[in-house]
Amino acid sequence: MSWLRSLVFNSALFGSTAIMCFLLLWTLILPRRCILVVVHLWLNQITWIERYIGGITYRVIGQENIPEGPCIIAAKHQSAWETFKLHVLFYNPAIVLKKELLKIPVWGWYLNHSGVIPVDRAGRAHALTGMMAAAHKAVADKRKIVIFPQGTRVAVGEDKPYKSGIVALYLELKIPVVPMALNSGLLWPKNSFIKKPGVITIEFLPPIPPDLTRAEMMAQLKNKLEGATKRLERSAT
Predict the structure, then answer these.
(1) What is the mean pLDDT of residues 14-30?
(2) Residues 6+ apart with CB under 8 A from 81
(3) Which terminus of the chain has fewer CB atoms gathered within 10 Å of its CB, N or C?
(4) Mind giving me the DSSP string for 185-225?
(5) CA 197 – CA 63 distance, rounded (Å)
(6) Would you place residue 237 in the very low, low, confident or very high pLDDT band (cuts 50, 70, 90)?
């Protein structure tokens, strides 16, 4: 039953996404605000598929910890699921992601037009300069910046180091960092065909103020984010 449900779910998810991408290609010539409408139409469709085919719902706690105006959202990344929720949670976020994703045919075009912050991992100093310029523009536009501080999906129970990108943004932008914990990997495991029904929890933790040292910020972020994530994983099992 689990395999059959997952087959129908994955077929609906990827099939509807492909159809929508090709049918709405013409919107890529429109201003970015029009692409945001397309993105939200697509995400509403994904949420329906999750709920009524996959049996997956979610809840959000700690929203009062998200400040008004620009901030950095430092999010755990356990599966593809949370990438579908960032625009739902923040409407118009500037998402930090690897530049290679923009090269994906069709899909990458939409990403590029949605106003992401691409990072060229091989570019080093030049890449950092480009990321900071895009980040400053996002702050000027009063957008939330979302970054996965470990730089990749981390399966439940895995332990991977935090990258320097989050520190660079924090020291450069001087805005609060809000840790975003979740337990999506329990229902939508990394690189797994099988999706499990249930309720995913997202929790926003109290913001880290913008006046700490590099070491202080990183220690607070890791302690808060890892502790909350483990708690959410335990409470769901």
Answers:
(1) 92
(2) 50, 56, 184, 187, 188, 200
(3) N
(4) GGTS-TT-S----EEEEEEEPPPBPTT--HHHHHHHHHHHH
(5) 24
(6) low
| Angstrom distance (rounded) from CA 180 to CA 229 | 9
Q: What is the pTM of this model?
A: 0.93
What SS3 state is found at 100? helix
Q: What does the block give as tokens for 88?
A: 């739902």
A 10 A CB-CB count for 211 gives: 9
Report the alpha-carbon distance of residue 96 to residue 72 in Å, rounded: 10
Amino acid at 83: T
Question: Can you tell me the mean pLDDT for 121-127?
Answer: 67
pLDDT at residue 12 in the model: 96
Measured distance CA(141)–CA(72) in Å, rounded: 14
Cα 197 to Cα 219: distance, rounded to the nearest angstrom: 34
Crossing angle of helices 32-49 and 2-23, in 10° steps, is: 160
The CA distance from 72 to 210, in Å, is 10
- Six-digit token string for 143: 């957008």
Name the CATH topology of 58-236: Glycerol-3-phosphate (1)-acyltransferase (3.40.1130)
Cα–Cα distances in angstroms (integers) from residue 62 to residues 70, 160, 193, 216, 231, in the given order: 17, 25, 31, 23, 14
Contact (CB, 8 A) for 178 and 71:
yes
List the helix and strand counts (H, then E) for the chain: 7, 7
- For the chain, give every domain's residue range: 58-236
The DSSP bridge pattern shows strands 198-204 and 117-119 to be: unpaired
